[in-house]
Write a structure and sequence with these properties.
This protein has 8 helices and 7 strands; from the N terminus they run H-H-E-H-E-H-E-E-H-E-H-H-H-E-E. By secondary structure, the protein is α/β, with parallel strands linked by helices. Strands 3-2-1-4-5-7-6 form a 7-stranded mixed beta sheet, with helices on both faces. A hairpin with a 2-residue loop joins strand 6 and strand 7. The N and C termini lie far apart (36 Å).
């Protein structure tokens, strides 16, 4: 694989929409929040930027001073360099765990990134994002979450499989993806997500979206 996700960089956009219900809606929700919160050109960092889906929504709708693409996959960074050549953008091949900035960004986004980390690594990575934000800056993340009970887990995973089957995936593909739960990525409950944001330093923490096994969270510095 050329990145940490379940899909190769070249097929990521196609496969992720077949995998995550309401995937396109994640970005619309973020844009809505940003437009309400700010009325100025923004410095925006997207960690785990992938193929640039967040930037696609941003450059179409938001006034940008600088958009920083960050991903630890060289292949992903190659894709966004080609897609956004000539835009107000910088590109960095690195993990969010290597982020070493303070008071630098108005917005930081992380879409389906932190569930690859163990609990303490996750809190450390979120804290790095907190430190990198300017005062009143916002951090928005969309993540897989863990149901509270084993019965709920079985129900949610079966529902998730049903969605993927309806998108044209084979049963084998669906089972392979769902088998990654707790092995290749490590979801935590919605309550634990909120607690992680609070531990990282955010005093204003909210849930902005819940669908199937994904949820969106907002932290305001």
């Amino acid at each position: 694989m050329d990145n940490i996700s379940a899909f190769h960089a070249s097929e990521y956009d196609e496969k992720i929409k077949m995998t995550l219900p309401y995937y396109e809606e994640f970005y619309k929700q973020i844009i809505d929040i940003v437009k309400i919160q700010f009325n100025k050109p923004l410095r925006w960092l997207d960690v785990g930027c992938g193929t640039g889906k967040m930037a696609e929504a941003v450059f179409d709708t938001v006034d940008i001073d600088k958009f920083i693409f960050c991903d630890n996959s060289p292949q992903m960074i190659d894709i966004v360099k080609k897609r956004f050549k000539g835009k107000k953008a910088d590109f960095t091949i690195s993990s969010v765990q290597e982020l070493d900035k303070s008071n630098s960004f108005d917005v930081i986004t992380a879409i389906q990134v932190f569930h690859y980390f163990q609990r303490e690594e996750r809190i450390s990575a979120i804290r790095k994002c907190y430190n990198a934000l300017c005062a009143n800056g916002i951090f928005v993340t969309f993540e897989n979450f863990a149901p509270y009970t084993e019965v709920g887990k079985t129900l949610y995973l079966q529902r998730w499989k049903s969605y993927q089957l309806l998108q044209g995936k084979s049963a084998k593909e669906c089972d392979k993806h769902i088998s990654r739960y707790g092995k290749d990525y490590f979801p935590i409950s919605i309550s634990e997500h909120l607690e992680a944001l609070n531990k990282a330093g955010f005093k204003n923490v909210e849930i902005v979206w819940v669908s199937n096994m994904q949820a969106g969270f907002l932290g305001i510095k």
